[in-house]
Design a protein that fits this description.
globular, 6 helices, six-stranded mixed sheet, alpha/beta, Metallo-beta-lactamase, Chain A, single chain, 14 strands
Amino acid sequence: MIFRPFYRDETGCAAYVFGCGGVGIGAVVDPYERDVEAYTEFAGVKGLRLTHVIDTHVHADHRSGGRLLAERTGGRYCLHRSADVAFPFEPLDDGQEIELGNTRVRVLHTPGHTRETICLLVTDLRRGPEPWFLLTGDTLLSGAVGRPDLPGHARENAAMLHASLASKVLGLPGEIEVHSAHFSGSVCGVGMSGKPSTTVAFEKRWNPLLSLTRDEFIARTAEDIPAKPADMEAILRFNQGRAS
């Protein structure tokens, strides 16, 4: 498998290019608009044809490069089916599997940060039949979880986030790597580590939010939140395809 993270330290944003080197097909997850050329250049060097461009959710803190990247590469731009946007996209459903040669991607719908949020569970069949890593978007972060307030209804979304973590993420094998869409420097969570990657087991042991009861989790994540991202409304309009 080919796997390359792209980090933006000034905003705490992370994107990922990965895929099957043998077959030469791959995907980009959570692309940042300013880095579209960097993704295509890397894919070209590695001989990857980018067939899928996936946003784990409609981002509120930065302009997505998803539609632009899909247009340039001829790939499919994908979001969860429930995404509220004003343009056509390839809908993804919970449990769906995306085949990228020997790389397989299973979609896990994990609402909470937003209603359409997904995680992507990735397996490399050349190494073995078991999943290797999880791209968590803003569901589970290194040392934190995604804030539930940006779409509004913070306590309702916090309850959904707790359920998503319990039912879809924390029951996975502990050795699975976790690669999220944000790390320290982002306003999409509170208490994030500056180390972008972690594991399921490490977060279960050390993430302070994961040891809370359901009610404690809801109260903490719904109330302990930073200021909203700068230009959030304009960014959302762009990412939803509603910019004037």
